[in-house]
Amino acid sequence: MLELTVAVLIMLVGSAVCSGTETALLSVPLLKARQLAQATRHPNAAALLAIREQINRPIATIVILNNLFNIVGSIVIGSIAAAVFGDALLGVFSAALTFAVILVAEILPKTLGERYAESIALWVAMPVRTLTWAMTPVVWLLEQIMAPFVRGYERPITNETEIKLLASIGYQEGIIEADEAEMIRRVFRLNDVKAADIMTPRVALTYLRCDRTLADAQDIILNSQHSRILVTEADIDRVLGMVLKDELLSALIRGEQDTIASQWLRPVRFAAETERADQLLQTFQSSREHLAVVVDEYGGISGVVTLEDVLEILTGEIVDETDRNVDLQALARQRRKRLLQSRGFGDVSH
């Protein structure tokens, strides 16, 4: 009877440890494992990260051990139980053992493994790596057998939808603030918005001909609400560059009214209407410029887009002192109309 009791305990405990370990390792996301490894610098955390990055072999090792406990244990226990109980009680004992395996070796350890996944995973990481290394030949053979069925498939760690959902859950759980969650969601809009959706259209631009003197253009300069003014040859479709309004005002104050606009010319960057907002942001950062001229497919000037226009995708409308006299609602409706039309919604009147 003692021999039977020991055999049952060995099988149940061994199977339970394997089941709980498997569940705990699979319940720790790869991103969480990377965070633990970077934050703690502990060997167990490093081992856990190595397991999660190459999860197939550790899981195969655990499954092999689990089945050895269950199958070999059942054979050994069955032979001992037949001698102890005889044919009359063997069926009752088998039913009780099956119930114990389901409850003690499967349901309970897997529940605990999921609930305390991080702690258990860190505790078993080193032993699992050692066992995986020891059983490499067997696991390698199984990998070769399974290779034709699993080759070429690699699931991404996460995706855009999951990150947005995590931001919403984080806000609902009180982990992050509402504005932080909204900012995360807005970031993903950058690659969906084109330059044509956020630009200031050509009809609202201020520009000067390159041969005009500051005296002739004084009214245009003073009345312009833009800090950067385009400089053209004959018309707006032939942009040469831009000038800074502050420099022109300083020149007027110094009495340099007879100088022409081209003397203050600065180079300007051009962007296609279809260029994405995230690409524009990278361009503005790398070039240290705040403005780009938007051109259509025929090379004509459609408008200009600024760093502020791109940032407004993340922050919402930015209004400064120069925007007080601007009908922001009309501009917003105009931008929304262009955006919807670009998404294939046709003519939108509201």
CATH class of the largest domain: Alpha Beta
The computed structural class is alpha/beta
Please provide the ordered H/E string of secondary-structure elements. HHHHHHHHHEEHEEHEHEEHH
CATH superfamily of the largest domain: CBS-domain
User: What topology, given as strand order, has the largest sheet?
Assistant: 1-7-6-5
Q: Give the tally of β-strands.
A: 7
Rg from C-alpha positions? 35 Å
Number of domains: 3
Low-confidence stretches: 324-329, 343-350
> Would you identify the CATH architecture of the largest domain?
Roll
Identify the overall geometry. Answer: rod-shaped
Alpha-carbon distance between the two ends? 84 Å
Number of DSSP helices? 14
- Strand fraction equals 5-15%
In CATH terms, what is the fold-level topology of the largest domain?
CBS-domain
Domain CNNM transmembrane: 1-180
Protein name: Magnesium and cobalt efflux CorC domain protein
Main location: membrane
Keywords: CBS domain, Membrane, Repeat, Transmembrane, Transmembrane helix
